[in-house]
Amino acid sequence: MDIRTLCLGILTMGDATGYEIKKTFEDRLDLIFHASYGSIYPALNKLTEEGLVSCREFSQEKRPDKKIYSITANGRYQFFDAIMKKPAADRFRSEFLATLMFSHLLPASAISEFIDDRIKDRLQKIASMADECGSKQTVREQFLCNFGLTMYQAEIDYLQDNRHLLEADALMGTRAAE
Amino acid sequence: MDIRTLCLGILTMGDATGYEIKKTFEDRLDLIFHASYGSIYPALNKLTEEGLVSCREFSQEKRPDKKIYSITANGRYQFFDAIMKKPAADRFRSEFLATLMFSHLLPASAISEFIDDRIKDRLQKIASMADECGSKQTVREQFLCNFGLTMYQAEIDYLQDNRHLLEADALMGTRAAE
DNA sequence: CGAATATATATCAAATCGATATAAATACAA
DNA sequence: TTGTATTTATATCGATTTGATATATATTCG
């Protein structure tokens, strides 16, 4: 599943412009799947060429044309085909964890700061999600929202319970032994 | 932090060939940061040009030259500089979760199958990690390994406790209301 | 003895990111 | 009211990264 496919998916929920699709990625998919303009606009062009979406242009005075995309019957069929396939493995990249991998090279203060920041970030995300979660329209969006909340909370718990291991390691002479 | 930087990091642990660096990514960083040959070899060339690593070539008979890379003093300095910066946000992409986002378009059987597969996958990863975790050399590698275990377990727990919500939604006529 | 796996290099098209450019409408505070 | 920031809306571009593929030999194991 690539960004092209996910654009199709978003269009199954209703017509949209490229801009609105980007916003949907940010508002409802950012935890799950990230996409930038540089991939969305080319994706929409290609989907249009392939007849999986259609595009109505509204020429506006003194503004660039507004292009509203709709999914076609063929597009729906292709999207269904795509989501029926076994999902490929997650792609995950964490600079935070990669940094901790080399925490023996860092001053203890930096380690503590990074962990503090991480916990703060997760708490903030939980705070802003908690409201939304309840007011989600569909069962599946609630399911995904609560999934996010649960994972963030698990991360906070782990960091709070175990950070002392890394911090102690940084302060003691353990490093010299390596 | 990019793959170039992380290659530097791996070389702080000892000299290595491109092949060995790839293996290190697989063995010790796959949870955290993925890298393929297509990014590692160009990274090493660029690092060599920049003088952050040095390269000794061992011409072997009947085999391509073996190139052993070492980090230079300047390289160590640059790497330290990189990990002292605030780590950027995680990059995460999950086809599994993206698929669930559109579970209302799937037959109930497919939803159950995907969740079953996911749980199996997580259990398998936990099984293969559990051994390793105890035998990790350093405190920080144990910390990261247990972090992974904890997150995988949290995911399993959530899926087991809440899958019925999605599955019931798929079976009932709830979909018609959307 | 033969098959599979490990060692080791490298490249390439395609996908994607992140930044930037452009331009006007709208909201909002000084 | 006037200036500033944000939102709406398009699009491109270099740099990064993926995933697949090519090439060759050594080693392991049934």
Beta-strand content estimate of chain A: 5-15%
Report on the biggest sheet of chain A. 2 strands, antiparallel
- Give the domain tally of chain A: 2
Strand order of the largest sheet of chain A: 1-2
Given helix and strand content, the structural type of chain A is mainly alpha
Q: In percent, how helical is the residue content of chain A?
A: 55-70%
The low-confidence parts of chain A are 174-178
The N- and C-terminal alpha carbons of chain A lie at a distance of: 43 Å
- Which chains make the largest contact? A-B, 60 and 59 residues
Shape of chain A: elongated
Q: How many strand segments of chain A?
A: 3
Number of helices of chain A: 8
Could you describe the 3D structure shown?
Two copies of one chain form a homodimer. By secondary structure, the first copy, chain A, is mainly α. Chain A has two domains: 3-84, Arc Repressor Mutant, subunit A; 95-177. The first copy, chain A, has eight helices and three strands. Chain A has helices at 3-11, 18-29, 37-49, 73-84, 95-101, 108-134, 139-171, 174-177, and strands spanning 53-58, 66-71, 91-93. A two-stranded antiparallel sheet of chain A has the order 1-2. In chain A, a hairpin with a 7-residue loop joins strand 1 (53-58) and strand 2 (66-71). The longest helix of chain A is centred in the last third of the chain and has 33 residues, at 139-171. The first copy, chain A, is elongated. Chain A starts with a helix and ends with a helix. Chains A and B meet through helix 4, strand 3, helix 5, helix 6 and helix 7 of A and helix 4, strand 3, helix 5, helix 6 and helix 7 of B. Strand 3 (91-93) of chain A pairs antiparallel with strand 3 of chain B. The structure holds a DNA duplex (30 and 30 nucleotides).
